[in-house]
Amino acid sequence: MEKILSFVESNKDRYLSELKDFLRIPSVSSQSDHNKDTRVCAEWVENQMRTIGMNNVQIFETPGHPVVYGDWLAAKGKPTVLFYGHYDVQPVDPVNLWTSPPFEATIRGENLYARGAADDKGQVYIHLKAIESYMKNAGSLPVNIKMIIEGEEEVGSANLDNFVKGHKDLLKADLVLISDSSMFARGVPSVCYGLRGLSYMEVELTGPKSDLHSGSFGGSVHNPIQALSEIIASLHDKNGRVTVKGFYNDVRSLTKAERSAFTKLPWNDKNYAKDLGVKQLYGEKGFTTLERLWARPTLECNGIWGGYTGEGAKTVLPSKAFAKISMRIVPDQTSEKIGRLFEQHVRRIAPKTVNVKVQFLHGGEPAITPIESPGVKAAATALQKGFGKKPLYQREGGSIPIVVQFKKILGLDTVLLGFGLPDENAHAPDEFINLDNFFGGIRTSVHFYNELPNYWK
Ligand code: BES
Ligand code: MN
Ligand code: MN
Q1: In this structure, are residues 317 and 235 in contact, taking their beta carbons and an 8 Å threshold?
Q2: How many angstroms is it from 377 CA to the middle of ligand 2?
Q3: What is the pLDDT of residues 240-253, one digit of tens each?
């Protein structure tokens, strides 16, 4: 271990410069003009896997972006870890709000800034380097490892289910390991045991069959932007509760023990509001902020458009108005049912003046992972050794839908070992990874692989 950890210590500069290469590839999965880059990125990962000594490295084609696979299976009698991550990233717009170019990773202060720095390239890279340092210094790994790094996580992993279903033997393992979430706070390592799910909807309202002169026609027809705004405004009541009929029916209540555990976490609403730049927090009445973030379902309007939004003024009564609306869901809600309830509700409340189209774009299920599993115990020990601090247990508000699918299809529990930070600007301008977390992440991952067999009795 000494030798491996001092190797990590003395290779920090190389790690950073290689990570910058990884981050330079604009693998934006949602934008087809980046399809080539996304492919190049898959090949970069493939090449990395080969370089660090993984075997059977290959790119699996899917109808969308490819999956990169590699394994190392020579640890006889030891547990097999299935590591999952994603090499695709979110779009960078609005690009003018970035302090430095999103694909030119730049160190400022204690952070490395770039799209994908934390979500998820930086965290994938942590594991590639942990494995490399193990291989280089011990000549082998203490566990068996299979890695799948996909390229469609940020667009809903549409093809991953089929990939997993079609490669059950190849992916046979004892547990899943994912580093695609955050630590509780700076210097406060944590193990995550819960994620929310998601139902993502698009609403389209059509009023008149074409745009109209707002002077000649204003006063005679219901403006679809107005109708849409009225609908959206009615989706929450004055207590911040979602009004979609049946929305809360399947929500599993928090246990007393969990509520009390949440209150013991180092949290301060005032500081949180200040960090976010809001004058006051908002949310469902009767719940604390952490409860609302981690264990309560929510509804957000992600975008709304229609009519004229260009330069200057144009008097128009638009034909159409659109909104993208997503709902975060918790156990025991399902994305399909919540999507259906949403559609029914919107159809029911929509005024007769407009035509309504509701589309389900994609969904994913919420997950709770067992906190008493050997994998989580090994993770806790590894975090303690990697960061010199006992980790906390937390849930997260974000979603990694494949976690539930790994359980359903492969029967595997997942360990969520996150090295990001809650304020890392994921999906936003100036995304970063904290350098202490990056290097602490490599050390922790080395320890995790080393510790796991001890807990796997
Ligand atoms: N890494 C995130 C998931 C995440 C975010 C976990 C914050 C824990 C805390 C992942 O890349 C992501 O963005 N997921 C999407 C899922 C969606 C596209 C199905 C999300 O949560 O919006
Ligand atoms: Mn991610
Ligand atoms: Mn993401």
Answers
A1: no
A2: 23
A3: 999 999 999 999 99
Q: Which residue stretches of 159-198 are H helix?
A: 160-166
The DSSP letter of residue 153 is G
Mean pLDDT over the full length of the chain: 97
Distance CA 118, CA 39 (A): 20
Asked if residues 8 and 443 have their Cβ atoms less than 8 Å apart, the reply is: yes
Distance 363 CA to ligand 1 centre (A): 12
Q: How many angstroms does the Cα of residue 262 sit away from the middle of ligand 3?
A: 24
Q: Count CA within 13 A, CB hemisphere, residue 81.
A: 31
Ligand 1 atom having least distance to the Cα of 154: 18
Q: What is the reported pLDDT for 241?
A: 98
Strand 197-206 relative to strand 320-329, pairing = antiparallel
For residue 400, which ligand has an atom nearest its CA?
A: 1
Residue 339, CA atoms < 13 Å, CB-side half-sphere: 19
- Please report where in the chains the tokens 């898959």 appear, as a residue: 42
Intra-chain end-to-end CA distance of the chain, in Å: 21
Q: Whole-structure pTM over 0.90, yes or no?
A: yes
Per-residue pLDDT tens over the stretch 193-238: 999 999 999 999 999 999 999 999 999 999 999 999 999 999 999 9
